[in-house]
Amino acid sequence: MIKSSVILLGLALSGLLLNGCANNLPTTVKVPVAASCPPPHIPPKPKLPITNLQPDSSPDTVMKAYVATIEVLQGYNTQLLHILKSYEQPKQS
């Protein structure tokens, strides 16, 4: 009687252990990982046309130099914004 109950208990325990092993399937978990970004390549500051003005420059020359300076700075701004945009995080939907 004791032998049969020990065998029955052993079979029950082995059945429980095997049942637990059969349900352990691999689980995929998506976890965001921090990655370092490469340093940005910042273009050198442009030479501004107003730096070439002389104290005796005519008003027409001064105005043209200021307009050209604004255009140069706008182009430089566009370059910098393009570089920053590459570091923008993608939008999650």
Features of this protein?
single chain, 93 residues, mainly alpha, 2 helices
Poorly predicted runs: none
Helix content: 40-55%
**N to C succession of SSEs:** HH
Radius of gyration: 37 Å
Helix count from the secondary structure assignment = 2
Structural class: mainly alpha
What gap, in angstroms, lies between the N and C termini? 66 Å
How many distinct beta strands? Answer: 0
Overall 3D form: rod-shaped
Largest sheet: none
Overall average pLDDT: 84
Strand proportion, as a percent range, falls in under 5%
What does it look like?
It is a single chain. The protein is mainly α and about 90 residues long. The protein has a domain at about 40-90. The protein is about 50% helix and about 0% strand. The protein has helices spanning about 1-20, 60-85. The longest helix is centred in the last third of the chain and has 27 residues, at about 60-85. It is rod-shaped, with a radius of gyration of 37 Å. The protein starts with a helix and ends in an 8-residue tail after the last helix.
Helix-strand layout with pairing:
Blueprint: H1 2-22, H2 59-85
Quick summary:
The chain is built from two helices and no strands.
